[in-house]
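@channel sequence for tomorrow's demo:
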Amino acid sequence: MKIEIITPDTTIFTGEASLVQFPGLDGSFEVMKNHAPLIAALQKGQIKVLGMDKLPMFFDIKGGVVEVARNKILVLAE
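structure tokens (generated this afternoon):
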């Protein structure tokens, strides 16, 4: 699935992922391929992106919103 993490200033990451873990307001949650559509608020923490090569990447955020639809993830982060 495709993921894009953007801030008001720049695009932090664009690429393919097999799994993404988010710091949700009610606790962390994960999204995998063919996940049901969702929109969720994020709190301060780390987004973990597991690439297609199974190597993890971590991105620190101060909060934001994530939208998941049709195997595309868009993160609007602070």
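heads up for whoever presents: The longest strand covers residues 11-24.
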